[in-house]
Amino acid sequence: MSDEQVQRIIVTVDDQNISVIQSVVTALQSAGMKVEQVLAVTGIITGEVSQSKLERLKSVPGVASVEIDREMQAI
Fold first, then answer.
1. pTM of this prediction?
2. pLDDT digits (tens, 9 = 90+) for 12-65
3. Cβ contacts of residue 9 below 8 Å, gap of 6+?
């Protein structure tokens, strides 16, 4: 992905689509997301996407939310 910034993201699937989470994964990949992990029981999908494609993921059917994955540090 050239010089474009890549964001690590967490996608939450809405409750009605958890049973078909694999089709949501396929749609996210088609929209430009590189899927790294699918937590089917909880409806969470993690991965990364280029900044320019981030907004596109929010309109994928079955997606409840798309959040930037923020690193946490213990102090």
1. 0.89
2. 999 999 999 999 999 999 999 999 999 999 999 999 999 999 999 999 999 999
3. 33, 46, 47, 48, 49, 54, 57, 66, 67, 68, 69
Closest CA to 67 of 32, 26, 54: 54
Positive or negative CA dihedral for 14, 37, 29, 58?
positive
The Cα–Cα gap between 61 and 8 comes to: 20
C-alpha distances out from residue 41 to 7, 15, 19, 20, 44, Å: 24, 10, 9, 11, 8
Please name the amino acid found at residue 62. Answer: G
Per domain, the residue ranges of the chain are 12-64
Contact in structure between 46 and 10 (CB atoms under 8 Å): yes
* CA-closest candidate to residue 34, choices 69, 75, 73: 69
